[in-house]
Input
Amino acid sequence: MKVCIIGASGKLGQYMVEHALARGYEVVGVCRPESVGKLDRFAGRMTVLPGRTDDRDVVAKAVRGCDGVLTVLVPWGVNDYASGTAKAVLDHAEPDARLVFSCGWHITRDGKDRYAWPLRLLLALFGPIGRLFRFADLDDQVRATNLVFASDRRWTVVRGSDLEEGESQGLPVWSQHVGDPVLASNLTRRIDFALFMVEALTDDRLVQEAPAIVGRETTSARAHASGAARALPATS
Ligand SMILES: NC(=O)c1ccc[n+]([C@@H]2O[C@H](COP(=O)([O-])OP(=O)(O)OC[C@H]3O[C@@H](n4cnc5c(N)ncnc54)[C@H](OP(=O)(O)O)[C@@H]3O)[C@@H](O)[C@H]2O)c1
Output
């Protein structure tokens, strides 16, 4: 299996590289030219194409022949970086490729997510401040995922909770809507977010789904382990 990781040099991206290589996948990564050095430890084990993730020419070259594309959607700047990235991937990936995108819980597919006040407050503050100082545009990530949701591609949009570093606890559990009790703990290890992204490449049950994930060892996930929550089979 050949996979492309768009945004490979970030924290999530590097974990995805590790998981993909561990599975024996051939890995191509795209990252900003100034960040290529962050991937030095993978030298000789992956191909790195320097470029902004919304550079359509670089993305077109990177995804050619790939069975799967893992894309880190980030709302940096105010020039449609996330939506440009999503569009480049949707336009250029192979017709049957599995396309897996990352974002946060604030993304909603059907408007049925129910958010606790801390997240609502964070979004209310971060959105205008990010735009005012021109360092981020949360609405751009919304536009990006709306492009994906409207596509007839074989996509999955993985919506991450708050993240922490630490050893893997295994594959996160997921639910369709933020506000579902299983997700109440709102915490996932970043390494396991990456694991879920890579696992989604080969899980057709996740095609055209927007799972909201939470760590499988969190209180809420454990409490609902035998309930309505959906857990993907653990990987070996
Ligand atoms: N952080 C959280 O708490 C959280 C929670 C839920 C979901 N998520 C989602 O998880 C994914 C990864 O987020 P992360 O926070 O963990 O960060 P991350 O993995 O470190 O990724 C950050 C990415 O943004 C790029 N980037 C940084 N500054 C940039 C700039 N000015 N212009 C263009 N690209 C820039 C980085 O590229 P370089 O390597 O080139 O700098 C890297 O690819 C995102 O989709 C995010 O929405 C994050």
